[in-house]
Amino acid sequence: MVYIRKNQRDLTRTEKKRFVSAILELKRSGRYDEFVTLHGQYYVTDDEEGPRASHMTPSFFPWHRRFVLEFERALRAVDPGVTVPYWDWTKDNSPASSLWAEDFLGGTGRAGDGKVMTGPFAHANGNWNIRARVGDGSFLTRNLGRPSDPVSLPTRREVAKALSDPLYDAAPWNSTVAKGFRNTMEGWGRGGTVRTFHHNRVHRWVGGVMLGATSPNDPVFWLHHAFMDLLWDRWKKAHPRSGYLPRRKLPASDPQHGRVFSLHEPMPPWNVTPAQVLDHSRVYRYA
Amino acid sequence: MGLSTRRSAATARGGSLTRRILLRGAFAMGMIAGTAGALAPILGKRAAEAPGTADGPAAAGTAKAPGTEPERYAERFAETYRGRHIQGTARGTRPARAAAARRVAAGDAMTVTAVRDVEVRIDGRPLHVMRRADGSYLSLVNHYESFPTLLDAARAAVDELGGAQLSTSPLHRL
Ligand SMILES: [Cu+2]
């Protein structure tokens, strides 16, 4: 049965409530933190030797598609009526958006330590204790828009420009590629000039734990990546003749041989190939 | 087709972070007490782009033809920034074959890395740092933005932490 992923702004009160409850149940059971850990473990940079499945790599999109899907399956095992909504940050681009309201994800963090004080994930409620963490606090942190040195979310026009590129990705298949949809959307600048854009910039805009290796500690992670997943669909629709690259396994002479995943090479930890996740239309669709 | 379930996913342990913390720990012993005097950051220095014939790192100090010399980089600092004590060292060598590899790949990505050690502490607590292929750095606090020098990455981590201390054992929990 195909299910629908909705824009978070279109969720009813009940849908929000059920989504939040299912997340809290995963958290209670310990399953949620396994996802956080997995994300941290697979965050390998392109300066390191060895395979790189999740970031700074062509399989950024397919890896995260599968990652969100696994999470959604876990949610649906708790409540079969729940799906992961997406956050279109080109439209809902302010801390005043209903996304950050008390009845959904809660708002920004307080001054000083960035502690989130409102909503179901506020530490005081006792349901959201962060385990895999960077700082010494075990509470959720955010700094929406970073008022002290403001960042803005990517605009529709910026996203449209990235979507207009018919090239999926290019050699050297890492964070230094200056062209192609994948790295433009992932958002790596070169050597610290334009430091962050698109996907990375959204992590930057939210701030707090969303900026660290354990970013899924903030539930907004899933809504952000569901939208990234939808943008990948839009790109495919806009360029029916283009496809995932590299198509074939890179030759042994290529410095990225054994490090990036071509179309039919299985990605860890699930052993699925990018080709196997290209079509999700029989599993879920976007409203 | 496609999205067939295969569990085991989240229970698989990558081990990569564990490996890195071990490497880093071993390095901390030797380095902090070691090399006296600040090494000027020489990041960004590129080896001559001659055809690489050596297929392994050449021994340091050995005179070699251009392009077979391993490429070295180093950075070292200690300062008080916004009331926090930050210190760091980065040094490493990229094998000569990296230069040749770079010419195979489009762009100027440094895709082959050899010996490399990075260490950053904030108020004495280790901050996990990683390098990107272009030589810039990310930290565990800020994984979606990179900085041209280790010092920039350390300062940015302080900015981000606010008043918080780093967790003493974040990677045990990861
Ligand atoms: Cu992300």
Task: Kindly describe this structure.
The complex is a heterodimer of chains A (287) and B (174). Chain A has 287 residues and is mostly helical. Helices cover 31% and strands 2% of the residues of chain A. In chain A, helix 1 crosses helix 3 (60-78) and helix 3 packs across helix 7 (220-238). In chain B, the strands form 2 sheets. In chain B, strands 1-2-3-4 form a 4-stranded antiparallel beta sheet, with helices on both faces. Helix content of chain B is 24%, strand content 25%. The longest helix of chain B is centred in the first third of the chain and has 18 residues, at 16-33. Chain B is built from 4 helices and 7 strands, in the order H-E-E-H-E-E-E-E-E-H-H. In chain B, strand 1 (71-81) and strand 2 form a beta hairpin. At the A-B interface, helix 2, helix 3 and helix 6 of A face helix 2, strand 7 and helix 3 of B. The complex binds copper (II) ion (CU). Copper (II) ion binds next to helix 6 and helix 7 of chain A.
Strand order of the largest sheet of chain A: 1-2
Largest interface: A-B, 74 and 60 residues
Radius of gyration of chain A: 18 Å
**How much of the polypeptide of chain B forms β-strand, as a percent range?**
25-35%
What integer is the average pLDDT of chain B?
Answer: 60
Q: Could you describe the largest sheet of chain A, including whether it forms a barrel?
A: 2 strands, parallel
Strand content of chain A: under 5%
Secondary-structure element string of chain B: HEEHEEEEEHH
Number of continuous helical runs of chain A: 7
Judging from the principal axes of the Cα atoms, what is the shape of chain B?
globular
The secondary structure category of chain A is mainly alpha
Helical residue percent band of chain B: 10-25%
Helix and strand string of chain A, N-terminal first? Answer: EHHHHHHHE
User: Please, what is the oligomeric state?
Assistant: heterodimer
* Count of distinct strands of chain B: 7
Radius of gyration of chain B: 18 Å
Q: Gap between N and C termini of chain A, in Å?
A: 15 Å
Heterogens: copper (II) ion
Q: Which percent bin holds the helix content of chain A?
A: 25-40%
Keywords (chain B): Copper, Membrane, Signal, Transmembrane, Transmembrane helix
Pfam family, one (chain B): MelC1
Organism (chain B): Streptomyces chryseus
Family (chain B): Belongs to the melC1 family.
